[in-house]
Amino acid sequence: MDANSLFCFTQLLGQEKAKRLLSRSLTAGRLPHAYIFRGPEGVGKRLFARGVAAAVNCRDHDRLGACGSCTSCRKFRSMNQPDFMVISPEKGVIKIDQIRRLTRELSYPPYESAMRVVVLEDVQTMRREAANSLLKTLEEPPENNLLILTAESSQEILATLVSRCQVVPFSPLSIDDTATILVQQDIDLQTARLLARLSEGSPGRALLLHKTDMIGLWRQLVSFLSDPAKDPDLEVGELLQLAEKMASLKDALPSLLGLLRIWIRDLLLGETTEREREQGLPVPVKNWNSSKLFAKLQALNRAERELYRNCNRNLVCEVLLFKLQ
Asked: Which helix (H) or strand (E) holds 224?
């Protein structure tokens, strides 16, 4: 992907429905006061929002999307576009003070562009008082301002907030598109396809898996858990070492549990194939019936709940591995 395509949402891979919706609005010159881009984590909502923001104020009116070379696009590229703002969670939360500062800023006209664009990332993290404050702005939107909210579809958002925005749905990318994006990040094709599958079409999540070398640990866990020669009563030391490695992932640990869930789900559906063997995926040899596999899924769900309640990571991982054997 070249530098210009980072500013041109039409050149991004996947999300064809979102492209059509935004293209029609930009071509007709009829933009709503607010969008909400809603979909799974890591599928391109933020990058897409930045592409739309650049396109809205691009000086080249003969093309759809940002040209990457006009005055506005150059300022956008150098992060000096005064009419573009990004609000991100602070310590995992969008706070009311951030929304109040935004409200004050919106009371002034754009500095030099026809439209000020504000991207509010991960609005599912917004506390209720902050959401109610933003709601007032959405009810009486100031002119010449476009708000783009991004939200993870698995998390609840205040319904009144959603109802005052035009919802643009985002979906997981195809395995091929995800792998293509990963290859552009200098990841070899075989690893890219494995990451694409395990991330379920989320390039952002795939890159996190690659960065943390989570795939290596996942392979160790699957090999240990599926080996019939491993006796949990005799292999306690190895199990505890693996649990310690899991716990060391800290905030990334839920992603590893997600990989284990995909693996067990595939076993339940009988989707372990020769192609996966060729890719180096561990193939289980233990004879687990559906009841045992369902019990393992329940153990994973319980571990995630305990992590959410800030239980001791090491202990959670140790108990989980005993139940997954």
From this structure: helix 214-226
Please state whether the predicted TM-score (pTM) of the whole model is above 0.85.
no
Confidence category of residue 275, pLDDT binned at 50, 70, 90: very low
> Topology of domain 4-169, per CATH?
Rossmann fold (3.40.50)
Higher per-residue pLDDT: 275 or 153: 153
Break the chain into its structural domains and give their ranges.
Answer: 4-169, 212-324
Residue 62 — φ and ψ, nearest 5°?
A: -90, 5
Total H helices, total E strands in the chain: 15, 5
Q: What angle do CA 298, 125, 137 make, to 5 degrees?
A: 145
Segment 92-112 shows an average pLDDT of: 91
Structure confidence by residue, pLDDT tens digits, 170-221: 999 999 999 998 998 889 888 888 888 878 888 888 888 888 778 888 888 9
**What is the widest separation between alpha-carbon atoms in the chain?**
71
Tokens of 286: 């233990």
Task: Return the DSSP state at 147.
Answer: E
Give the span between the Cα atoms of 322 and 316, in whole angstroms. 10
Distance CA 59, CA 315 (A): 57
Residue 117, judged by CB atoms within 10 A of its CB (0-12, 13-18, 19+), counts as buried
| Cβ pair 278, 189 in contact under 8 A | no
